Structure to design on (973 residues):
């Protein structure tokens, strides 16, 4: 966004003039006006529809009906910085101003001062953190998300959309596969298998028909990369599927998307309809003789259906459970036919690889991991949101330059969890490590689909791993014993430790059973479920020991291990603690220092939060 | 379809000739090498759920399940090493940690795969504490007792119901620790949703699914197994009558039966009540003048039949009689009756009740 702001004039004006030609209207100059409002899920939740309506009303009220008629107010997808939603770009005569946290009541002033009088409302504009957030990023996939209207195919064509598919279809299947292999693109779903190689295996299979499936069953807690790409730029995924389908010889594509993404499904349906009308999907695409159709299959909300064989079972109408590989889906996949399954992010990389070439793509990123990766940056960090960074960037740059450092100034970085519930914890001491597939594996974590949770020193690592293992346990399909019962027992041991009744042997038991679950589980879910526990034991063993041996949670998170005491020296006798205590455990009289009755205390922490003098420990 | 012979597969140091499509488990079994498993049944597609059959394959970093891994040329397999032994013990421990462990009164004792493995690997259920299922026993149907607490989720009942019987009565329901086999919407089994073939019972490795009629009637090792052919239809399924103290107490599958490989329908498995029924007709009965039946010997009965037939044929001609046999007879028996009609009656009046 920031580079856009500096380089603004040309790109903006051309986009606008392409999509909205027309004679000069009455009133102030609407010819040079474009307003872009983020309508991703985050934006809509923050009220962007109301903001758009309000713009329409206010523009009309100020005599700018022409602007409304000519659709100067554009919808765009998510631009990543969800913490500041609703984000609005006002582009006037080629100069872009971005407003943050726009609410309907602010519109009147923006229209009057900025659009009519040409003076941006300085106090509501985005601050420098908006620019630092975007400056360090390298946007390939998300670039268009904040610019184009996801519900208008012409907007996508206007920025060169479907050129990649056109080019691919003018080449032979073999040439397309070679190009993708050369680019070094690896699967963004987590395992990082070379996309071109996967395609090659599938194209070598002689059985027909073949299928290509887009895996949009994004299930990691806190991850929303795929959703944002689909909501912001659905055509890039469709174009990627056309390229992939052509390369492997599949005439049917499926998009397996979770039903919890209604907006993304809606936009995909619109996009498929529009692409079909334009002839980009259907018979004889680009007169190449290649036919392709896309079907949407909505998942019923099981995390395991992101695993490819479970996903296939689910499309076939069976219970979503993985099966052993081999045979791999490229040989025996959907309905027993050769099938390629690619993640949303992988597919949406393909159009630019085809148009700009493999060498352009492989020039971005590190030695073995090429291109960019989208992460959902969350946790105790200032700038949460969606980011796209080149592979090989250091964690430090992500956290401090893009993320803006810790959320609370007095807190220190403790660890970063990548790869969601399948990944591991990277301690603050390894902050300079590069983020790519190999480095993350080496440290006991993984790339995963792109969740990145930043933790500060107020995070209890035992509690954190308990959260992830409770997630994998409740999402286990139940097929294999180690995952079904093993994760349950791990969860019970962790609950015991955080509840203050851990045994000294528990750590070794966790390591042993965790290792065995990894070695013997059937699918990726079980094989990686113990990662959060094993990596936190590896890096934060002392914290586990402290829970068990001393009965202390160093981060003060585990409720059962908390003890509230009032520091008599610091107590100013205000009595606020006594007033908020729900169990009358604080003994206090006016002008007397408060004392906590431990037998009555329910450890809710209300007094701790209420004390203005930090005298409760 | 026999594939190409692959000669160089080594399991536990022994060279074994196998076919291309074979799995490690099949190859080992052929060579008499036993690999423990709970979820495998030869009648079903490989599943890979219990993870007990994991073996070490040379050159592969992690253990592989023998039941789903096909053999490849020059493959070298070790069926057990220290790590695999430890994992197997832990898997059995985990299973026992959610199991009632009431072997003393369990119907399946002595014939239970889980019990055998716990004995072989010397594991009890004490290593892991934690939540245990405490679910009610399901007796809501006439033939099958379902004790969910004893279920180890090997999925064999579900698969035999869907792959072999194709009845689709049960599937796994729920997620994580709470997954279990059950009917749709957990409704009681009835003829609306179940055929009561008892195939699920025949494949259950533990005491989760048992034949209700045989419960409490004796341990497996007390039974004398008598192989017989089912008398209900002409298919010729074999099964074992389980006989204790001269009484048939239940029917179990004969997995090596050439016709049915242990598969049976409701009649074969559960239709044995007539054997010891007081009303069962054990001798021929001849109707006397007062319309009542009287017991007779076979000689008397056959003589009567012969007299009547020859009388009829003499009086009205040989075209007026015929033979009608039963689909419960075997092919050979049906052949005999047709032969009888053609040579004795000298006509072609032959028919059978089997027309579907």
């Amino acid at each position: 966004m920031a580079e856009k702001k500096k380089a603004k004039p040309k790109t903006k004006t051309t986009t606008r003039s392409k999509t909205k030609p027309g004679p000069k209207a009455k009133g102030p100059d609407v010819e040079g006006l474009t307003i872009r409002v983020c309508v991703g899920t985050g934006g809509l939740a923050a009220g962007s529809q109301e903001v758009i309506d309000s713009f329409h009303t206010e523009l009309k009220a100020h005599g700018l009906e022409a602007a409304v008629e000519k659709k100067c107010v554009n919808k765009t997808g998510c631009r990543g910085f969800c913490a500041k939603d609703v984000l609005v770009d006002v582009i006037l005569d080629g100069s872009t101003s971005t407003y943050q946290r726009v609410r309907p009541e602010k519109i009147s002033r923006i229209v009057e001062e900025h659009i009519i009088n040409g003076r941006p409302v300085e106090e509501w504009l985005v601050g420098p953190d908006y620019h630092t957030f975007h400056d360090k990023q390298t946007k390939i996939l998300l670039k268009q998300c904040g610019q184009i209207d996801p519900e208008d195919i012409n907007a996508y064509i206007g920025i060169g959309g479907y050129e990649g598919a056109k080019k691919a279809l003018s080449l032979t299947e073999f040439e397309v596969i070679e190009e993708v292999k050369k680019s070094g693109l690896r699967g963004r779903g987590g395992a990082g298998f070379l996309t071109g190689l996967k395609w090659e295996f599938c194209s070598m299979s002689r059985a027909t028909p073949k299928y290509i499936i887009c895996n949009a069953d994004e299930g990691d807690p806190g991850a929303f990369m795929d959703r944002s790409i689909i909501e912001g730029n659905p055509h890039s995924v469709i174009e990627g599927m056309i390229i992939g389908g052509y390369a492997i010889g599949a005439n049917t594509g499926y998009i397996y998307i979770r039903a919890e993404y209604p907006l993304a499904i809606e936009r995909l349906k619109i996009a498929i309809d529009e692409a079909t009308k334009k002839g980009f999907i259907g018979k004889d695409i680009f007169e190449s003789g290649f036919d392709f159709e896309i079907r949407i299959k909505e998942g019923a909300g099981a995390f395991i259906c992101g695993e490819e064989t479970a996903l296939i079972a689910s499309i076939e109408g069976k219970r979503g459970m993985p099966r052993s590989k081999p045979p791999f889906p490229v040989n025996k996949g959907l309905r027993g036919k050769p099938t390629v399954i690619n993640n949303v992010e992988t597919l949406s990389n393909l159009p630019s690889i085809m148009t700009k070439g493999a060498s352009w793509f492989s020039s971005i990123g590190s030695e073995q991991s090429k291109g960019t990766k989208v992460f959902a940056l969350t946790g105790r960090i200032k700038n949460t949101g969606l980011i796209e960074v080149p592979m090989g960037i250091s964690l430090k740059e992500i956290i401090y330059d893009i993320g803006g450092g810790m959320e609370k100034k007095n807190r220190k970085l403790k660890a970063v969890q990548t790869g969601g519930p399948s990944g591991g914890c990277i301690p603050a001491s390894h902050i300079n490590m590069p983020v790519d597939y190999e480095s993350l594996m080496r440290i006991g974590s993984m790339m995963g689909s792109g969740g990145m949770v930043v933790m500060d020193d107020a995070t209890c690592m035992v509690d954190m791993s308990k959260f992830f293992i409770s997630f994998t346990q409740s999402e286990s399909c139940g097929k294999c014993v180690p995952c079904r019962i093993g994760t349950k027992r791990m969860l019970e041991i962790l609950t015991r430790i955080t509840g203050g009744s851990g045994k000294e042997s528990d750590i070794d038991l966790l390591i042993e059973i965790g290792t065995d679950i990894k070695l013997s589980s059937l699918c990726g879910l079980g094989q990686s479920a113990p990662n959060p526990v094993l990596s936190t034991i590896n890096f934060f063993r002392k914290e586990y020991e402290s829970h068990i041996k001393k009965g202390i949670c160093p981060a003060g998170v585990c409720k059962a291990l908390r003890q509230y005491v009032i520091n008599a020296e610091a107590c100013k006798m205000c009595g606020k603690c006594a007033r908020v205590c729900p169990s009358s455990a604080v003994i206090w009289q006016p002008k007397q220092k408060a004392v906590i009755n431990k037998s009555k205390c329910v450890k809710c922490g209300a007094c701790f939060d209420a004390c203005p003098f930090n005298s409760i420990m | 379809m026999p594939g190409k012979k692959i000669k160089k597969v080594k399991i536990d140091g022994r060279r074994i000739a196998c076919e291309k499509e074979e799995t490690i488990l099949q190859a080992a079994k052929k060579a008499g090498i036993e690999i423990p498993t709970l979820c495998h049944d030869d009648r079903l597609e490989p599943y890979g759920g219990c993870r007990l059959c994991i073996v070490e394959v040379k050159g592969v970093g992690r253990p592989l399940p023998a039941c789903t891994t096909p053999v490849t040329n020059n493959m070298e397999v070790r069926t057990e090493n220290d790590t695999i032994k430890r994992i197997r013990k832990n898997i059995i421990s985990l299973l026992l940690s959610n199991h009632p462990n009431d072997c003393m009164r369990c119907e399946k004792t002595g014939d239970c795969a889980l019990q055998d493995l716990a004995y072989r690997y010397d594991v009890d259920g004490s290593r892991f504490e934690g939540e245990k299922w405490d679910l009610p026993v399901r007796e809501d149907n006439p033939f099958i007792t379902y004790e969910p607490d004893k279920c180890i989720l090997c999925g064999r009942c579900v698969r035999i119901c869907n792959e072999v019987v194709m009845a689709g009565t049960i599937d796994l329901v729920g997620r994580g620790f709470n997954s279990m086999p059950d009917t749709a919407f957990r409704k009681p089994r009835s003829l609306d949703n179940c055929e009561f073939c008892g195939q699920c019972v025949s494949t259950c490795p533990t005491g989760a699914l048992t034949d209700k009629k045989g419960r409490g009637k004796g341990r497996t090792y007390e039974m004398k197994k008598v192989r017989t052919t089912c008398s209900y239809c002409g298919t010729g399924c074999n099964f074992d009558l389980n006989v204790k103290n001269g009484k048939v107490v239940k029917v179990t599958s004969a997995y090596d039966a050439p016709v049915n490989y242990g598969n049976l329908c409701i009649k074969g498995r559960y239709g044995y009540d007539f054997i010891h029924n007081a009303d069962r007709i054990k001798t021929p009965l001849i109707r006397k003048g007062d319309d009542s039946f009287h017991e007779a010997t076979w000689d008397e009965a056959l003589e009567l039949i012969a007299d009547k037939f020859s009388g009829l044929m003499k009086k009205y001609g040989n075209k007026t009689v015929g033979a009608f046999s039963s689909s419960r007879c075997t092919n050979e028996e049906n052949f005999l009756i047709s032969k009888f009609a053609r040579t004795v009656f000298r006509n072609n009046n032959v028919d059978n009740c089997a027309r579907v």
About this structure: The longest strand of chain B covers residues 5-11. Chain B has a mean pLDDT of 93.
